Fold this sequence. Notes:
α2 (28-34) packs parallel to α3. It contains twelve helices and eight strands. The protein has 255 residues and is an alpha/beta fold. The longest helix is centred in the C-terminal third of the chain and has 17 residues, at 238-254.
Amino acid sequence: MSAPVNTFKQALKNGNHLIGCWSSFAEAVTAEIMGTAGFDWLVIDGEHAPNDIRSIRDQLIALAASPTHPVVRIPVGDTALIKMVLDAGAQTILVPMVESAEQARDLVRACHYPPQGVRGVGAMASRATQYGTVQDYIQTADDQICLLLQVENRAGIAALDAIAQVEGVDGVFIGPSDLSTDMGFQGNSAAPEVQAVIADAMKRIVAAGKAPGILGVTDEASQAYKDMGAQFHAVGIDVMLLTQAARALAARWKA
């Protein structure tokens, strides 16, 4: 038996427009609920949400029966963390703060078994192989791993063309909040100067043959990014969805 086909990776190759959402509660039941909402993909956020490898694993289990594809964002591009997340069953990884082609190449190697990479060979005892059921996993897993890199500061933008040319990188995600702050706009990603950089970055990613991605947390921002050509496109964050709906409901009935 071979490694499962990564339908998210295949959809990116086909040029499909994929709508996603952030999953930041770090709870399996919340991920399971979000998996019923109809999003094409969800980010299990290990960078800013209170996740560890166990909670990431539990959310992967919770989404296993869902048509929504889990994307795991690790807190930093560390080989050991990548190994753990892949062995837990993730097939798509999002890595923040990528600033060079050399860093991108190291991340590609971390996602692949030798001789192409440096991923440790221990998955037969892990969820990735369904505990040894997927007997050809090591021979077939590399082709099903999807690596998404976040470019979210001026250094990353300066190196974007080189990063996007690295073989084994499937998509480049622009981080608008970090980018705008690094550009001196303190999180104001709607600033015209920031929007111009994002629009140009989208074009450069597409020109390199890679899928461009981004997160928008307002309808206006999401529409703008869609018009720019975002292909894997997150349109909200679960925590924000709950807080906004709850506060609006309370205000309406208190009025």
